[in-house]
Write a structure and sequence with these properties.
- The complex is a heterodimer of chains A (625) and B (103).
- In chain A, 7% of the residues lie in helices and 35% in strands.
- Chain B is mainly alpha-helical and 103 residues long.
- Helices cover 40% and strands 2% of the residues of chain B.
- Chain B starts with 15 loop residues before the first strand and ends in an 18-residue tail after the last helix.
């Protein structure tokens, strides 16, 4: 079996396999309880183990979090300490065991009803019966799959929006299911599950997007997939909204599935026997929702209001209260946090806004443990790169990416601008730029000098300066560009000198200065970076121990929790784009050095082409956001 | 249910607890502690939390180092506790499972 880490260390690596799974899922099932009422759950079993009459949804995500139970089937439970007693008093998802919902006896079967919504994805496929794929486990965790037909049964007028179906499942449906083992139903898929691998994938393009790391007005972007398959006529009439998943990797090391929902009916090329499908994840629908303050969660392809009204602000305040209590402040009132010592009211202002803005805003506002969603279907609202990638999947939430990718890289690794302050009103316009010396270059400030300052271009809107720092022996340590993006047409040279460890440049134009190193393929950040940290300016003003006023470059005031403000002030304004051939997990270790920069990824584009192989592009921000 | 000699010498994590084992444990516990635990467990059953908690609580009245774990060391201690609760004698410290071995 191929191993990604081992392959990465080879000069020539085997391309990763790709897999497309068209998978009408359980998430489109709406449950009915034993008394016939429609439950706000995905699927409700009418018969299950003992006290689990009210068992709720079955989803792999839930099941995998549960533990093995003290089951006497299959020779008894192993005394390794993992087995726990079955709690039959709960009515929550905890009723599910490690392997799913257990049959009542070792020879027990399942029989349950469920409903399909008129609006559900099955749409055209709703008929008197249809196939379902059922996955079951035994008490040892061995997995079995069966295709079982669900049959429609007498509807009632109260279920005008639902089609009711009945499903019987027994051990005999699963080939090889052992004697004396209990049947655990793991999860179900509506209709058949269609799996397409390398030889049927003509091309596949994924745009996986996270929360745009825009400090002033962050946005949450959706993710998309476009796939062209051959010999896939069986899915030509699937409906919109059906789930499609993408995986890649080697056998045994496939990635976590990225989930999308089909946007439109598949395009068919009967002559060439090709089927094209496009999908997007649920975050793409956020723009359609404009509402008052609310807290939202994602259900399948839908976005639903989790708790209406002030849930979001409630959560913010709950956290703020805890934060204050840790700092000996007492929370008083509904929307005001008082500094008890000084009785200075401090407000958290959360205004009505679009859900996309709300989520994105909350995403940047809180630390990663504060907010509930980190990974939505295919995108990654916050995807953080910490250190050099070793083995884990690019699809993991926390990832590592070295900025030093690409053999053509000639720069000195590790040069990075971490702070960028602007005083834009006074003459001369002054830009303070501190080079973070993560590679110990230059050795000392005194030993280094600006060796070279030269124009690269003299176009009015595209003046670039190349600045090279060298020591007395002409060893170049830092090389970067300063770029003029707007302002005067005068072409004054940059003045530069050393001030201790800080290099200060006087530039002849007003507006922002953008500095980047050669490790970047592109830096264009005119809209995204607004705050500076300048102790002598007004950009960063401490109001008390808890809140901080930040002024953006338009002069607008923002009151943020101090740690959030600090995070913003510390955030570098650099945007990195990496391109390389191969899946992002296929990193060119032979060119990566030990110098790494913390990064937070904004978006990732993967392109799988016929014949195998990927090309990738990652856009990331410096720092941990 | 008549008293059955407890099993206190499980050696490793590969051992299993069968319905028969659990009937012995519960039956002995009923004798030793006056509990009313079910004693007719079969392969069709899964131990429920109510039963397990009652068993642990009774056993802890003799040895409060006993935990909720289904680990074999804990099971040995549970059956030792039942033995002691029924008037048995504690074995030497060398034979009695030490607390630090418990999961």
């Amino acid at each position: 079996m191929l191993d990604i880490v081992a392959e990465n260390q080879k000069p020539y690596r085997k391309a990763l396999d790709a897999m497309i799974v068209v998978n009408p899922s359980l998430q489109y099932l709406f449950g009915t309880s034993a008394d016939g009422t429609v439950k706000n759950s995905l699927l409700t079993f009418e018969q299950a183990y003992g006290g689990l009459t009210y068992s709720k949804n079955m989803r792999p995500g839930f099941i995998n979090k549960q533990q093995k139970v003290m089951d006497f089937a299959g020779g008894g439970f192993i005394n390794d300490g993992e087995a726990v007693p079955l709690n039959t008093t709960y009515t929550s998802t905890h009723n599910h065991t490690h392997y799913g919902v257990p049959a009542q006896t070792v020879n027990g079967s399942f029989s349950f009803d469920f409903g399909l919504s008129n609006n559900a994805s099955l749409g055209d496929r709703v008929k008197s019966d249809f196939p379902m794929t059922v996955y079951a486990y035994d008490s040892k965790g061995n997995k079995y799959r069966a295709s079982i037909t669900a049959t429609k049964y007498a509807d009632t007028s109260q279920f005008v929006s639902f089609f009711k179906y009945h499903l019987n499942i027994s051990k005999t449906d699963f080939d090889g299911f052992p004697e004396n083992e209990r049947l655990y139903i793991g999860y179900l898929d509506c209709l058949d599950t269609y799996i397409y691998e390398n030889d049927q994938i003509i091309n596949c393009m994924l745009n996986l997007r996270g929360c745009e790391l825009n400090i002033v007005s962050p946005t949450m972007q959706g993710s998309e997939i476009s796939v062209e398959l051959r010999d896939a006529e069986e899915i030509k009439d699937i409906s919109k909204g059906i789930r499609i998943q993408y995986l890649s990797g080697y056998v045994g090391m496939m990635s976590t599935p990225r989930t999308f929902y089909i946007d439109e009916y598949p395009q068919i090329d009967d002559i060439r026997k090709r089927v094209s499908i496009k999908g997007s994840d649920c975050t793409t629908r956020m723009s359609d929702v404009t509402d008052d303050l609310a807290f939202y969660r994602f259900y399948g392809s839908n976005i639903k209001k989790y708790v209406i009204a002030n849930e979001l602000i409630g959560r913010i305040f709950d956290h703020a209260i805890k934060y204050h209590q840790r700092h000996n402040y007492e929370y008083k009132g509904t929307n005001t946090l008082n500094n008890e010592a000084n009785d200075i009211p401090t407000k958290i202002n959360v205004s009505d806004q679009n859900i996309r803005t709300q989520l994105a805003d909350a995403n940047r506002w809180w630390n990663e443990d504060d907010f509930v969603f980190k990974y939505v279907d295919a995108g990654f609202p916050r995807w953080i790169a910490l250190e050099q990638h070793t083995a884990s999947s690019i699809y993991d939430y926390e990832r590592t990416v070295s900025c030093n990718l690409g053999k053509e890289n000639k720069t000195i690794p590790g040069t990075m601008i971490s702070e960028f302050s602007v005083q834009s009103e006074e003459k001369p316009n002054r830009y303070n730029i501190e080079l973070v010396d993560i590679t110990n270059y230059p050795p000392t400030a005194e030993a280094a000098e600006v060796k070279q300052i030269a124009y690269k271009s003299s176009a009015v809107k595209d003046v670039e300066y190349k600045i090279v720092l060298s020591d007395g022996n002409d060893n170049k340590y830092k090389s970067f560009f300063a770029k003029k993006t707007s302002g005067s047409s005068e072409e004054h040279p940059i003045e530069a000198f050393m001030e201790g460890a800080q290099v200060t440049y006087y530039a002849p134009w007003s507006g922002a200065l953008y500095v980047y190193g050669e490790i970047l393929t592109k830096v264009e950040d005119t809209d995204h970076f607004a705050y500076g940290r300048n102790p002598n300016g007004k950009e960063y003003v401490e109001t008390d121990e808890v809140f901080t006023q930040l002024y953006d470059r338009n002069g607008e005031e923002h009151v943020l929790r101090s740690d959030a403000a600090q995070k913003i002030a510390n955030a570098p304004n650099l945007k990195y784009t990496f391109r390389w051939r191969g899946d992002p997990r296929m990193q060119p270790f032979d060119v990566i050095t030990a110098n790494n920069i913390l990064m937070t990824v904004e978006s990732l584009t993967l392109e799988h082409t016929e014949g195998g192989g990927f090309s990738s592009e990652v856009v990331a921000r410096g720092g941990r956001w | 249910m008549a008293w059955i000699t407890p099993v206190t010498n499980r050696k490793n994590e590969k051992t299993r607890t069968t319905a028969s084992d659990f009937n012995r444990i519960c039956g002995n516990a009923n004798i030793a502690f006056g509990t009313a635990l079910k004693t007719d467990w079969t392969v069709n059953d899964i131990v429920d939390a109510t039963t397990w908690n009652a068993l642990i609580e009774a056993a802890r009245s003799v040895d409060n180092s006993i935990t909720n774990s289904s680990h074999y060391k804990n099971l040995n201690k549970i059956e030792y506790a039942i033995l002691l609760g029924n008037g048995g004698t504690k074995p030497s410290d060398e034979l009695y499972p030490s607390d630090d071995l418990l999961p």
